[in-house]
Design a protein that fits this description.
There is one protein chain. By secondary structure, the chain is of the alpha+beta class. The protein folds into two domains: 51 residues; 101 residues, PH-domain like, CATH 2.30.29. It is built from three helices and nine strands, in the order E-H-H-E-E-E-E-E-E-E-E-H. The strands form two sheets. The protein has a five-stranded mixed beta sheet with strand order 5-8-9-7-6, covered by helices on one side. The chain has a four-stranded antiparallel beta sheet with strand order 1-2-3-4, with helices on one face. The protein is elongated. This is PH domain-containing protein. Keywords: Membrane, Transmembrane, Transmembrane helix. It comes from Corynebacterium breve.
Length: 164
């Protein structure tokens, strides 16, 4: 399974941040060429800003699978690889959205449940693990979540037939 997005930060937010950073960089380049600012800090700040925009632009929950595991991510903040034999079940569920653009709610270490999201999801893909932990990852819709869950279930079935 190739890496697929479960959900992304909304386009309007991504374009707004991109335009704000671009306007700031245009101002910085202007004052640098006019001789008011030293070029070295300007170049460093420009690179940092561009890296930030690229990370923000690509932000979103991603799911990918191989023959024996599934990888869940919210780059660059969170990443988890789960072996198929650790998964008790996979479900698609409605969920209360985060009160911010991206991040997490909960902790696997403290409460045993975590919700990872980007984009104010009201649906999630829930992974119920054998050790009673629950990992929920935001998806754009219940339909999208079901599509991803079906693909993951087929990978799980193939994995269990290879082991047996």
């Amino acid at each position: 399974m190739e890496k697929v997005y479960g959900n992304r930060i909304p386009s309007a937010y991504r374009w707004t941040v991109g335009l704000l950073v671009a306007m700031s960089l245009i101002f910085l380049v202007t004052v640098t060429f006019s001789g008011l600012v030293n070029p070295l800090p300007s170049v460093i700040l420009t690179i940092i800003c561009l890296v930030f925009v690229i990370i923000y632009w690509r932000a979103g929950t991603t799911v990918s699978a191989n023959s024996n595991s599934v990888q869940l991510q919210l780059p660059p903040l969170w990443r988890k690889t789960i072996q198929f034999e650790e998964i008790r079940s996979i479900a698609v569920e409605p969920i209360k959205p985060l009160e911010r653009e991206w991040g997490n709610r909960g902790s696997l270490k403290r409460g045993g449940e975590i919700f990872i999201d980007a984009g104010q999801s009201t649906s999630c893909l829930a992974f119920y693990l054998i050790d009673r932990k629950v990992i929920r990852i935001g998806v754009s819709s219940l339909k999208r979540g079901q599509e991803i869950a079906n693909v993951l279930e087929s990978h799980r079935e193939k994995s269990s037939t290879v082991v047996n």
